[in-house]
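Can you please make up a protein's amino acid sequence together with its fold in token form to help me picture the idea?
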Amino acid sequence: MGTADTAGSRSGARARRARTVAALLAAAGLFVAGCTHQGKPRVPSDDGRGHLDTSAPSPSTPTPSEPTRQAPSLLAVKIDNVRAARPQTGLDSADIVYAEQVEGGLSRLMAVYATKLPKAVGPVRSARESDLELLRQFHDPTLAFSGAQGKLMPLINRAPLDARTPEKASEAYFRGAGRAIPHNLYLRPKRLMPTTPGPDALTTGFRYGPAPAGGTKDTSETVRFPAARFTFSWSASRGRWLVSLDGTPDVMTDGKRLAPATVVVQYVKVRKSAFHDFLGNNTPYTVTVGSGKAKVLRDGRAWDVNWQRAKATDGTRFTTKDGSPVNFAEGQVWVVFAKAP
């Protein structure tokens, strides 16, 4: 009797231990599955402005049927545009020059380089929040800038771009003689981009070719910011628009006049951002996703057109009133973001 009770107790203990081990293994399996999400953890994704959307699932690994070819990276450089920064260097080599409003109603430029890298570019200045939205149209662009407001830097560092400041790439920057800080910082682009990206990197949505039908004769256009002024005057002999800033002809340090082939005055929303400069002035946010009106200048004529950019990763489409695509002239393009009326 006593022997049977002892054997039964041992058998029961072994059964309880087996159930415990099984439960532990099951729990461990659930823990591992929860952590790995079937081997692919969820990670925050970027919402288009450098902000993190923690609710979005991570992109899946492409299947063999999905295209894997991506456009090459290009170089974007933030350029100082106040009077003390002129004349500038290397701006005439850019494929595209974007002009945006910054604090105090002043202007700043973003020069985009894909088909040609000059020896030097500058003066280089700081980035703004709306630059992140504008740059989403490109694949993994390199952004060269002098720095940014302290609270903005985390957004820049999380954005899908290669942020290259003097602290990260000191060998690519130098201080020019004859100018005071901060208007004397210059970049050697080829120290950031060993090879020229090429035209495939320009995923802007821009089209080039014969001029659209219609248009009106136009030999001079002026765009005004609160504390800055751009004037584009048509030169029939050069077949280009000559740039003047604040009433003064805009020339480079080598004496060349800035003269784009196409100018786009794009009317956009300009709202307040969450950031301020050291004087307490709010930093404007230039909204480049959406739709609106624009004026395209080429060949001494002007066209009133529509623009559309559905999401940040898209380029911008320019169409006539009947929906036909608008072609730009071959050569440098300036896009001036003017506040919509």
Observations:
- Confidence is low (pLDDT under 50) at residues 1-15, 18-68.
- The helical segments are 2-36, 129-135, 153-158.
- The chain has one domain: 75-339.
- The longest helix spans residues 2-36.
